[in-house]
């Protein structure tokens, strides 16, 4: 019998990231109205960020200047994993003097955010369709962010998936770099062991101090109820808020 060559699997290793990402990109098709909103308005809202090898990566050397992006100098709040945009839309409406940047890899979520931003006539909101830690680490200038929000990040509940959790020692390092001195990282989750992990990681992180007394932070009053929070609460899970100030 002649020896068969081993099947050759071609792949380009440069398309694989060094670190696991905290999302699985949903192919989730957009509705016709989302598709329309995306086509009509993405140039106005979505940052034009050069990608690296992966579709949601940020190319090395890509930089953004918040003053140029928003056309003005103002405090900057960045939401990581904004979903359908409920929290950031509400905040952007309430605080016209602040700039808001929503980072989300789920395009249909961004399209929904855009539809509501248009209806509300918001001028202080921009969107980014990229892996959030890369944007915070590479694209934004160090010390340029006043607040980072991470509300109900994907829990990656199974132990073998914990390495995919967004909030890690590495994320703490990246958040610290992006935040200005005195800036705040706000987090919320309905997964108790993730809340404990967040607290452990951030208590141990250099350059942060707790911005709450007692076991957990008070519910952040700018945080609106989202479907994810409601689902957790309906299942009887406690909702945990955390806040850490950048030293
Ligand atoms: C469980 S949902 C919560 C959405 C929203 N914060 C809320 O409370 O309704 C988590 C969202 O984070 C997004 N996400 C996860 N990892 C991300 C990352 N590394 N960069 C950008 N978005 C991410 C997911 O696509 C998903 O929409």
Description:
The structure is a single chain. The chain has 247 residues and is an alpha/beta fold. The chain has a single domain, classed as Vaccinia Virus protein VP39 (Rossmann fold, 3-Layer(aba) Sandwich). 33% of the residues lie in helices and 17% in strands. The chain is built from eight helices and seven strands; from the N terminus they run ααβαβαβαβαβαβαβ. The protein is globular and about 45 Å long. Bound molecules: S-adenosylmethionine. S-adenosylmethionine is lined by residues 21-23, 80-83, 103-106, 109, 131-133, 151-154, 166, 226, 228. Residues 21-23, 80-83, 103-106, 109, 131-133, 151-154, 166, 226, 228 line the site of S-adenosylmethionine.
Residue-averaged pLDDT = 92
Oligomer: single chain
* Beta-strand residue percentage: 15-25%
Number of domains: 1
Helix content: 25-40%
Quick one: how many beta strands? 7
- Rg calc: 19 Å
Distinct compounds present: S-adenosylmethionine
- Largest sheet data: 7 strands, mixed
CATH architecture group name:
3-Layer(aba) Sandwich
Structural class: alpha/beta
Low-confidence stretches: 5-14
The topology string of helices and strands comes to HHEHEHEHEHEHEHE
Strand order of the largest sheet: 3-2-1-4-5-7-6
**Counting H and I runs of at least 4 residues, what is the number of helices?**
8
Could you please say which CATH topology applies here? Rossmann fold
SSE diagram, text form:
Blueprint: H1 32-45, H2 66-70, E1 76-80, H3 86-94, E2 99-103, H4 107-120, E3 125-128, H5 132-139, E4 145-151, H6 169-178, E5 179-189, H7 192-204, E6 208-210, H8 227-234, E7 240-246
Parallel strand pairs: 1-2, 1-4, 2-3, 4-5
Antiparallel strand pairs: 5-7, 6-7
The structure holds S-adenosylmethionine (SAM).
